[in-house]
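Quick start: read one record
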Amino acid sequence: MSTVDELFAIDTLLQPEEQQVRDAVRGFATRRLRPHLAEWFESGTFPARELAPEMAALGLFGMHLDGYGCAGLSATAYGLACQELEAADSGARSMVSVQGSLAMTAIHRYGTDEQKREWLPRMAAGDVLGCFALTEPDYGSNPAGMRTRAVRDGNDWVLSGSKMWITNGTVADIAVVWARTEEGIAGFLLPTDTPGFAAREMRHKLSLRASLTAELDLDEVRLPGDARLPDARGLAGPLGCLSEARFGIVFGALGAARDCIACAIDYTCSREVFDKPLAGYQLTQAKLADMAVALGTGQLLALHLARLKERGELRPEQVSAGKLNNTRAALAIARECRTLLGANGITLDYPVLRHANNLESVLTYEGTAEVHQLVIGQALTGSSAFR
């Protein structure tokens, strides 16, 4: 039997180093994540602190960044790492994505040399965890409307407001907080032990349960003047970081889809219905074939976008096209695989509904499907339809 990677000869498109990264992360996920995922999902927990040193040893934190202890690997290698993490669970990929593509990228891209030296080596080593505080209770798709404010008081800044749906928020040592100032939106580095900062775990989730999600409160949090990220000017600052994270999702969502297909193939080959394996029926094979083609097409798109990124040619609307296509395809695959497992598909004995539930979040965070449709529409027509 062929895997989808073999069907599309994916390995022929990868460099040896990229395959080594993929295999190393796959081994870590098999050894350290998969045996516990059902328990973590059911209990709504994730041992971020415990896993951080091992993830760091693999170079997963800020792996696409250069210097300051970061691995400096290719966009393709980073994408493949995201795919292997999300093949285990979207929560694991989210943790790495927030640490590296959001928090560390913000510091690496917009920070001073002193800020980079202070935070990035420790974050790359997993000694310091970060979060990225942009979304607010009333402002998700429209971050320009944020109410969190930073006001000058002498040489200091005083921040007040609230943030919501913040991954890693309850375990972060440093928060990259975006706030409105008199000059426009700005980014700040906020150590989470600063007086006035509070993080509350958000519970009762039906998706991304093996992930730590927080609501943040900022009650007149006082920061020194040098806490500001000087090169982050306006909304382009956080949006630039989000584009990095979305790129990881283009690959990551396919990992969840691939895991669902592998589970469905294994299940249907061993499950007997009317005295022969379920995999031996035409309807089953038609479903598997269609899903394999959708997954393979998404993988080819992801690899193409990665090569564009490595040449410095990747545009935001292309990232939007990748996220829109691949998250839609992954969610459809997860749902279809659930049908092949019948009633067994709704249990945590199998990963498919866990993946499907997670992908409901992946479809909408870091830009909903509708937002990405409008980004693509604007690129095609030259006319903005956001307002």
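The beta strands are 130-133, 149-153, 156-167, 174-181, 184-191, 197-201, 213-223, 272-273, 276-277.
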